[in-house]
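=== RUN LOG ===
request id: a7f3
mode: sequence -> structure
chains: 1
length: 181
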Amino acid sequence: MEDVPASPKTCPLPVRRHPWRAEQPCRDSRRRVDVADPTVTSPARPLKTPDDSRVVLAHIMSEHDTNLYGTIHGGVMMKLIDDAAAAAAGRHADGPAVTVSVDRMTFLAPVRAGDLLSVEAGLERAGRTSMTVGVRVTAERWNHSGPATEVATAFLTFVAVDAEGSPRPVPALDTSSAGIS
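=== RESULT ===
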């Protein structure tokens, strides 16, 4: 191996020279490049709206879900958020999708046993194989007859996968209609 001067088309690290090619292109796995424009549709990549994948999950919180302070444990809400977001991502992708990251999760108000939690998830963005899902969580207080209170929001990133676990393309998203945020 010998050092090759770095240029925009080559890796800054040493690369192996091939007899038929002067330089080996960079194969840096940390560099992310979407080859296809995620807004372009084709018969292989249909267009969907956020409403096509919207999911609402409702759950009555119980004492089993509480922590030492008498409020619902954050991990219980995180699981419900991930479940709803995964369902929305899978619905958009027309198949399985896996959680890649929780980009942001904000707890806004405490939830108590007896509260009816509504977890609403919908697509915010669709790339070539990845999707960003927005989630809004509201609680109807069991002992209060007012409007529901927003208790949490989150944004998660998913990647659609095939049977072997490799990323696969997802439908494009019509961004003219609003998402969850």
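=== NOTES ===
The first helix runs from residue 74 to 93.
Strands lie at 47-48, 55-60, 97-107, 116-126, 130-140, 149-160, 172-173.
=== END ===
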